[in-house]
Specification:
With 140 residues, the chain is mainly alpha-helical. A hairpin with a 3-residue loop joins strand 1 and strand 2. It has a two-stranded antiparallel sheet with strand order 1-2. It is 68% helix and 3% strand. The protein has six helices and two strands, in the order H-H-H-H-H-E-E-H. The protein has one domain.
């Protein structure tokens, strides 16, 4: 394999691990209030790793246009793109598994869209997009 393929596979694996890690941190904090034991137990699903692995591919393709935008606009773009990937990914998992792993939790929120995404997670998507950009720029 060429060095370029190695780099792409490394970046995809890195972003898959980062995304799952961010999600575990996010769920441990957001579920803290309802956790009587206060264990800060976060969770995710390995089914989500391929979605996070797409981040460096998107950033590589969109960097010329997106990186030139102001930070607030970039954050909004990232949140919208993350929602798009999440919606499609969760829909595909619903087809494959009968339900997406987050569907039960998402349906409890009035801010859910078809049980596939949650609009109230906008700040998290915004920040995760900017964090992914930072990591992407740092390794390039």
């Amino acid at each position: 394999m060429s060095m370029e393929i190695h780099r792409i596979l490394f970046e995809m694996a890195l972003f898959a691990v980062l995304g799952l890690g961010f999600e575990v941190l996010f769920t441990s904090v957001t579920d803290f209030k309802g956790d009587k034991r206060r264990f800060l137990m976060g969770y995710s699903s390995l089914w989500y790793a391929p979605l996070y692995a797409c981040a460096p591919l998107f950033l590589n393709c969109a960097s010329v246009v997106v990186f030139a935008l102001p930070m607030l606009v970039r954050g909004v773009v990232y949140a919208l793109v993350i929602w798009l990937f999440e919606y499609i990914g969760m829909w595909l998992l619903r087809l494959l598994l009968g339900a997406s792993p987050s569907e039960e939790q998402y349906l409890k929120s009035r801010w859910n869209v078809h049980g596939l995404i949650r609009l109230d997670f906008f700040p998290a998507m915004f920040l995760m997009g900017l964090a992914f950009e930072f990591v992407f720029r740092s390794i390039r």
